[in-house]
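fwd from M.: "can u put these together and see what the complex looks like"

so here's what she sent:
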Amino acid sequence: MQPLDYVVAGMQAVIFGPAAFELLGVPIPLTLVMVFAGVVTGILVGATPGLAGPMAMAISLPILISFFGYNVEALLPVLGFLIGIMKGATLGGAVPAILFNTPGTPDAYMTTLDGYPLTQKGQSRKALKVAHLSSVSGDTFSDIALFVCAPFVALMVERHLDFPEKTALLILSLSFIAAVIGGSPAKGLISVAMGLIAVFIGGGEDFYPRLSLGTDALAGGFSIMTAILGVLIVGAVLKEYEDLWHKSNLFGARERIIDHGDQRLTRAEILRIAPYVGQSSLVGTIIGALPGIGTTLAAALGYQLGRARYARRRPEGAPAFGEGAIEGVAATEAANSSVSGSNLIPVLGLGIPGNAAAVFIILATDSIGGFTPGPSVFRFSESVVNTELVLVFGLFTAMLFANFVNWTFGGAFMRAATVMVRVPKRTLLPVVLLLTFTAVYAQEPSMESLWFTLGFGILGYLMRKVDMSPLPFVIAFVLGGSLENSARQAFSATGGDPYFLFSSWIAIFFLAGSVVTVVLGLRQKRSGSTQA
Amino acid sequence: MKKLLAIGAIALGYSIAATASLAEDWTPPGPITMHIAFPPGGGSDSQARLIAEELENRFGWTITPQNTPGKAGLIMAKEMQDAPTDGTVFGIGISEALDYGMADGTAGMTPDDVTPIVTTTLAEVAFVVPASKGWETFDDFVEAAKSGETLRVGAITPKIADVTYLLGKAAGIDMNITMVQGGSGMINALYAGDLDAGFVAGAHSKGVKAGELVELVSGMSRPLNLTPDAPLLADLGVPYNLDIYFMYFGPKDMDSAAQAQLAQSISEIVLDETTKAGALLQANFGGGEAISGEALQTFIDDSFVSAKELMQAASE
Amino acid sequence: MYRLNIYIGSGAVLLALVGLFLWVPQDTGTGLIVRVRRQVSIGDALAPTIAFTLLAIGGALLLIEPRKRFDNEVTLAPFLHTGAIVSVIILSLFTMRYAGPGALLVAEGFGAAETEYRLVRETFPWKYIGYFFGGVTMIVGMASLSAGCLRARTVIIAVAATLILIMLVDVPFDDLLLPPNGDY
């Protein structure tokens, strides 16, 4: 098959794949239905304070897998749903930020700065429209970057990287994540180290399952579901609950939102925000492609750059940033949404997840089987059909459709999602917790796995409590196995060369890079803390 | 050849039916848990799930498949140690778990600690190289290994690594043997050029048919389906083989009526190409092979002894 | 005021030392490197050793890292509150685990046919008892503990939510098991 045939085959896999139901005799493709459902779920979840996209992805994954089964046909519908959530959630996060000054997702915090003042001025619908337009533009831009870059990254890696270099690359990613997330490289390192220790328990090549303390419970190791759902969801629920204890229920009575004046977005206004959207999309896309630094930083950076630009070109009489400038909303929303496409570049190109959402994409392909994200996916073989590559183009098609849904229906769903803000957290969170346990049990039916999940949840809570990001833990847990395997392979394949990590310039470059990131992180921390 | 064996196995299946009239009456006293010693996804997992589905359809039993992967099936064997023996708990894994896996004693189990039920098929194990290397026979491979730098050879289980090592030793060549994760990991590494060769257990058929991979040696005690002219391990001076069966087994002292009924029902399914499970086995392995009863017990006892010898030979 | 970073840092270093000198050497099948088949390979102890070393480095860095002037103020009360929440979760997981078999024992005591939970775990109502009571305990317990009072509304919501989850998860999916039915 020629490269173009793969693209066509991928689109066909989505459009002519299994049908969900028939509408007036026309079969409606299951994948598209799942993408649509995912986007709607994502918007609702994003608009609910206390819930976030990755949470919904985590909980729905085991249930989806059980529903669609463990076969290749399940991949596109399941991934479509997850990607729909990912894309919908950033859009939904803007809703409570603009209307009630409460960010629905952490990355929407910057949106409150200009979004809420707009609401106070009676321009909430206009603010939502700006958010919608910028968010979807950023997202689409990022997807295009993914489609273009991922195959090239993968081909480069496959051509130039052998086992030692692949090992070094994994080390670089982990140290980068440790150094960048959470503001303190020391805490990042601890978080990474704990993730590695957790994943190494019960593994190994010997018949004795290592670090299992002789118990059968630990012999099989911790499953990835218990660790990740525990740290990310149970941990977050416990922390949220503690925060709730401090304040009274915030979401009882709300003032009514009264809009007045023209809520339409004029052509002139669209032209005004366009450069901010473009600038932020670029920033968000670049940040998204780097492992570890996610939407929150992208939003902050996009906002800062937008403010700098605005300072020079602010129109006469227009409100400043922070006082209800539509440019402010545009700059933030474009930036945090443009992360969601490019964060799949390292996933598809290298098999390395950069943020929580990407972790669940890897987890999905891992659990279902038949598709291993990484450079080997992009083998444009001509004699045999590389089904993985067809799936990638199917995935791209699903992403484009998700954008289409966001463009067309996203605005309406954003307005509808307003009701989610009124859901009381106190009862919602325990239901989320119960759902999490149910999902874990569906994947791994033993009470032991629930106890492990709770244990990881307590760990996740403590980490949040001391300002240690749980994300390095999660990513280390996901990558730990491949890191050890590729090191073992590199060592054996080089005939037991103890210096295999220094066997080529590329590997040395990656290793030097990992040391440099940590050192830079430490120095930045030092100068940062003297300022504070 | 495979057909012939399959016919033999059918005969065997019927002979069980004739001798074990107990089997006719056995019905599970409650819902069944069927462990699967493979991670979810992939061919081995689907095989197990399809068989479970067909058993449910035919007999109206309630079966819950549960993945219990790890340590080539030893984790599952341990999991079943304290399980009820009334036939409501059993699992599918590979025969290597019972022979090589238990041979060195660290597992704390012997094949006597489980009840073998029935095999479903013999894995099509072949020593495979990428076609791009230009090696057409094992001699070409040996030649290349002797003239160039040390070749990298992958292995997906420790038993396979041992046999690979002995194969190299018999041919008088050095190889860097590297453990890889599963059949697809091996295939990817071969395509990417990270590895030069390795034993694969069925995942390679598609590549061989497309002319991208070449089978040089049969790992089994019989010739390969796709490359019947390839030598056997015995022809190359290796007195061991990699006859790895997919098989069902249950906890020790399992109810013999349950054992007989399950053996009969499962062999009927795997030998029937009109079932989804049978069709899958036909596509991936050239058909099902159902060995049970005495014949299976003998195979396991023999390969347990031979695995101990293999371990000894490979550590010299 | 707690000197949080010092505690975490020294805790990490301590754990790392235990790992490096006790746990890893005592509890792995092969050492840092092993010789198998006349070839040197990486042993099972190497990866955990590196992980614990990283933990030690992280801890040490945290100890020497300049502390912010405003260290996070951590008070005991929130921990106690979260501890109570966790206890409620533990209680509800136990309820989930044992309510079904317990109910069966009671039923047998009242003259129901003698059987085992394992054999009825897929039949109504036994299959739902543990999950239902465990789920309701979890939701009511956590919400009431956090709000400081028990309201009838919370109980109704909890019952409804648990029933909806049962319908969502168990009814359409044949192979999905609700806790604790997979343990048998």
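replying to her w this: The interface with chain C takes residues 29-31, 33, 62, 64-66, 84, 88, 106, 161-162, 165, 176-177, 314-315 of chain B (CB under 8 Å).
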